[in-house]
Amino acid sequence: IGPIGRDDAFDVDDFELLVDYEHKKHVKPIHDYLSALFDNEKMGDDYANCLLRAVVILGRLAQSSFVGDAFEKPDVIQRQGACTDSTISSMITVGNPLASVIRVQAILDPMTETGQKWAPILEASYAAAAAIGAFFNTDLLVKELPIKRFYRYLIPPRLTFNVTTGAIIPDRIAFAGTPKQTLLTMGLDTVSTWVAMPTASSYDLDNLRLTTSSALVEATFTLSELLVEGHVRDLTPDNPRGLQLVFSPSQGGTIVMANLGYFQLRAPPGMYRLSLREGRSSEFYHLLRIDHSMWAAFEDEDEDGQDASGSRDDATGKGAATPVDTRIVIESLEGAILFPVVRKNPGYETRELLASNEETASSSEGGIVGKLKDQATARQSADINIFSVASGHLYERFLSVMMLSVMRHTSSTVKFWFIENFLSPAFKDFLPHLAAKLGFQYELITYQWPHWLRKQTEKQRTIWSYKILFLDVLFPLDLDKVIFVDADQIVRADLQELVDLDLKGAPYGYTPFCSDREGMDRFRFWREGYWKNHLRGKPYHISALYVVDLKRFRAMAAGDILRGQYQALSADPNSLANLDQDLPNNLQDDVPIYSLPQEWLWCETWCSDEALAKAKTIDLCNNPLTKEPKLDRARRQVPEWSEYDTEITA
């Protein structure tokens, strides 16, 4: 029930009616059932606790959109006895099926990641007095171990408290007996709606070798926000891609993707409001309602212009619009799934929301008002906005040097944007001190991987994906231009030049690979085979440095085009070997790339020694011939690198 409007009365009689309804509908049926199984007078408080848990669990089940009433007979016949022969060697049974109220039977492949997840769930079910029957079925003809991870599942049955202070005792997971010589990475596998990250650890969780650790390796993970996802439906009908939404108070905004009308926001529990962003979005569209059920969102309007909720749509011209309740309540750890319904305003039915090239060049609001708003936005943000990503203590060290090199060569204000998912707790603690010392702004950003987009399993490829797949939704809607700089780069020029550079209508600009280092031709794969035929004379660009015109990028739906091509190509595991480079280069016909002057990126692997003198940035890219460690290369190749490194560590 709720939220209840300010003008709606909810008095004692209403409350008593609600209590009576809940008791008859949910509590009494469960009480009658449990009373037939247990002697509630002898159980006393234990029975009361059992009844409360049963009411909560079955109440949530009844609310699910995937099942009917919890007390009705299910439509699907439930099979029993699939795994009853305990003499089978691969069969494990625990508990007494005849005495247990809950009986669970499972067929598991223990050599898969799915099997790793379900084993502790079955263990927790046994702890809840369930009878378990598990039949193990796996492929015996495997050439190598299918799973390459150690997995623990934390399922705390209840909160535990310190008997002295009353404080909640944090739940813990321990890994014992792990190999000491193997290089390990610690990660977190959570519910998809949780935004959880490590918040305390002095160790490099991306590069753990237990032989170098003199004590226990400890890390604390914190659930900071919950995911608010949704799918927008346009009744015009049209694809609402590019529609900009605002989540207030102060939780930022996002844009609607073409795929399923998907959008994503993050926030802690509380009450918020969802609305269309002022400007082009509110000019083209108005919000009809916000549904909380997918099925309600697909009910058609009736003939006289009312939507499924009974609200009058003023866009039909048949009356004043009923005020839309834009309140969103996040009240559970499941986050929220929303289904907003929108319609184009009169006169805009056949117009495209996404601006053309000419419209992008001018203010979306036009005139003096639009110019004043653009100027106000420019004053609020930094002159140079730099985006980067790093994972592991070594690359965070490179990142610090890169930041110092940027600040050494500009008098403009600078703001750095980092993807929080991959930063270590130690670096996040160090950032405020570095920012105060060097005089820059910074912000930590993140974006949960959408459930419908094929996910990468290797961490390095996931990082590459974040460099290119979510550029339209990572940053605030009022940010116009951002520059990506690899963590292992050293800057020798003022990046304000890239901010002021005219990209000639392209959404982003990259530097082409150098072609003047002799002896590397056999590694220039873009000069033969598929890439030679596909590029047809266009250059193949490197992804270590690029500038993005976010206004143009969003206006042409470049993010949707990139994600669509990624979804198609990533079905082949042999495709997109260099994901962050291959994807934009593959799509140059659809999403054009402006080629930056060659001096904007110099790399010893591909560029001649003579070109180094004019280099504006130096990238420590890998050399397939020498395989020289990057730290050794930095000290040998860039004289100022050691100076910067010493200054930061001082």
Description:
One of its GO terms (biological process) is protein N-linked glycosylation via asparagine. Its cofactor is Ca(2+). This is Nucleotide-diphospho-sugar transferase. It holds the Pfam family Thioredoxin_15. Keywords: Transferase. The protein has about 650 residues and is α/β, with parallel strands linked by helices. Among the domains are: about 80-160, no CATH class; about 375-650, Alpha-Beta Complex (Spore Coat Polysaccharide Biosynthesis Protein SpsA, Chain A). It is about 30% helix and about 20% strand. It contains 19 helices and 23 strands. A 7-stranded mixed β-sheet has the order 16-15-14-17-20-19-21. Strands 4, 5, 6, 9, 11 and 13 form a 6-stranded mixed β-sheet that branches. Helix 1 (about 10-35) crosses helix 3 and helix 18 packs across helix 19 (about 640-650). The longest helix is centred in the N-terminal third of the chain and has 26 residues, at about 10-35. It is globular and about 90 Å long. The chain starts with 11 loop residues before the first helix and ends with a helix. Mean pLDDT is about 85; it is low at about 65-75 and about 360-380.
Task: Record keyword descriptors for this entry.
UDP-g_GGtrans; globular; single chain; Nucleotide-diphospho-sugar transferase; unfolded protein binding; alpha/beta; 19 helices; six-stranded mixed β-sheet; Spore Coat Polysaccharide Biosynthesis Protein SpsA, Chain A
| Spatial shape | globular
- CATH class membership of one domain: Alpha Beta
* Structure classification: alpha/beta
Predict the CATH topology of one domain: Spore Coat Polysaccharide Biosynthesis Protein SpsA, Chain A
* Strand proportion: 15-25%
- Major sheet, described briefly? 7 strands, mixed
List low-confidence stretches. 64-74, 361-379
Strand order of the largest sheet: 16-15-14-17-20-19-21
Fourth-level CATH superfamily of one domain: Spore Coat Polysaccharide Biosynthesis Protein SpsA, Chain A
Helicity level: 25-40%
Pfam families: Glyco_transf_24 (PF18404), Thioredoxin_15 (PF18403), UDP-g_GGTase (PF06427)
Pathway: Protein modification; protein glycosylation
Protein name: Nucleotide-diphospho-sugar transferase
Organism: Syncephalis pseudoplumigaleata
